Amino acid sequence: MMTPTSPHESAGEYVEAAVAHHQASLLRYAARLVGDLDRARDIVQDTFVKFVAQPRAAVAGHEAEWLFTVCRHRAFDVLRKEGRMSRFEEGQAERVRSAEPRPGVELEQHETQSALLALIDTLPANQQEVIRLKFQSGFSYKEISRITALSVSNVGFLIHTAVARLRRDFAALPR
Fold it and tell me: pTM for this one?
């Protein structure tokens, strides 16, 4: 969620703040949906073009939710147009990086994170999407419900089922 803006903030400053705050996470999200970083960049660009065209009052206070919803719809439009859905090739998803520098992590934390990401990739697509929206992007169940057009209880069920499977599969990994 963006911080409240000053009424004296120019439209350009408002859009620049939205881009700075949400571009990296939107790019990761779109890349996961379409399986290609270049197409994801185009989708995110289209999303921000639509954002600029919106009256500020129409999106103020829920910019992140609005941006992710529009990004999701645009990604599905692209996939429908191409008539196919493609998944990341082995290791490609881990190369999608945020523009922000990543803090150093200890080797054990890195291995755990890599193992969990690999396990998330084994989940059904709908569970992967809600898990990423919840834990990578920090959305609430209600916000995920609005982004994905699923009921809040369905979002909760998908997250619960995915987390239970991840716990089970992670515990079964050799140490």
Answer: 0.59
